[in-house]
Amino acid sequence: MLLTARVPMSRRATPKEHVKFWRDPVLRGLEMLHATYVTYAFSRHAHEGFGIAIVESGAMEFYYRGASHVAPPGSVVITQPGEMHTGQAVLETGWTYRTLLPAVDWMQQAAAELSMRSREIPYFSSPVIHDQHLNRQLVNLHRTLETSPSFLERESRFLWGLTRLIHGYSSPHPQLKAAGIENAAVQTIQDYLHCYYTRNISLDELANLVNLNSFRLLRVFKKQVGLPPHAYLNHVRVHQAKQLLAAGQPIAEAAIATGFSDQSHLHRHFKKMLGVTPGQYAQGCRTSVWKQNKS
Q1: What φ, ψ does residue 10 adopt, rounded to 5°?
Q2: Spatial contact of 287 and 2, defined as CB atoms under 8 Å apart
Q3: Residue 226 DSSP label
């Protein structure tokens, strides 16, 4: 049975917040969500792979690439790997949606199937796709991935759905500007935080690493990444904690192992970024493995 966690809302709120999360080991650990959010709002975060959101009802507002966007019912939202974005309701009644978080290699495979250049990562210039037919196709795909016991059907329909999305809405990737000294400094800091995320890193340590003064470092890092260094460090820690939880490590141990002070510290950042608690995520991973073994 798939995880369903319900959060009570006020009597005046018609819909109730609920979230169902699961992973599919057959689809390389593909993460999926079916949720209704009313008062909940995502903090600024990014996915390691692509983010695909299929809005069923209500409307979602999100900040992405320096602008605010609204996704109405019947639309599809797509975000590129590593690009920061938020998410919150537009209406008091909230929004209901389904999400797919395919890894980059899935999208590369789908693009290659369309005779595009080998290993090219698809690029989507517009984050909101106003196509109700595509929305219905992806809703049906999501339901199939949730219920079908057939490995072959899930794999085939998933790859087919990605190719339809890429064929209809991907575009040539814009030319990248040459990396300047400050851009290189930001990349160095990101790499450093990924390597030493368990440590209590100071701002002076990062500034000395790239030979920038602290204030300049804060400005260029936030401008380029979308988060200040301390928030990006929490972002790295949450993604590391996901891997440990998926492998079956207890929440309290995963929190300490990834640099959080305790379990509640991890819980707070995990929920704000991902829309589920560490316990819900761990349970969804266990449920997915059980479902695979029973198929």
Answers
A1: -70, 160
A2: yes
A3: S
Phi, psi angles (nearest 5°) of residue 164: -65, -40
pLDDT in tens, 25-40: 999 999 999 999 999 9
Every domain of the chain and the residues it spans = 5-169, 181-276
Model pLDDT for residues 77-89, shown as the tens digit of each residue = 999 999 999 999 9
Tell me if 258 sits within 8 A of 198, measured CB to CB: yes
Helix axes 229-246, 181-195, angle to 10 degrees: 40
CA distances from 32 to 35, 169, 201, 266 (A): 10, 21, 33, 21
Which residues lie across from 128 on neighbouring strands? 77
Query: Rounded to an integer, what distance in angstroms lies between the CA atom of residue 225 and that of residue 234?
Result: 13
132, two tokens? 């109700």
Q: What is the DSSP letter of 176?
A: P
pTM score, whole prediction = 0.88
Question: 3-state SS of 97-162?
Answer: EEEEECCHHHHHHHHHHCCCCCCCCCECCCCEECCHHHHHHHHHHHHHHHHCCCHHHHHHHHHHHH
Structure tokens at 261: 């002070």
Of the CA atoms within 13 Å of residue 110, those in its CB half-sphere come to 25
Q: How far is CA 165 from CA 35, 123, 124, 158, 159, in A?
A: 22, 11, 10, 11, 10
Buried b (16+ CB within 10 A) or exposed e, 183-215: eebbeebbebbeeebeeebeeeebbeebebeee
Which pLDDT belongs to residue 1?
Answer: 35
CATH class belonging to 5-169 = mainly beta
Domain 181-276 bears CATH identifier 2.170.150.40: no
Backbone angles phi, psi at 41, to 5 degrees: -135, 135
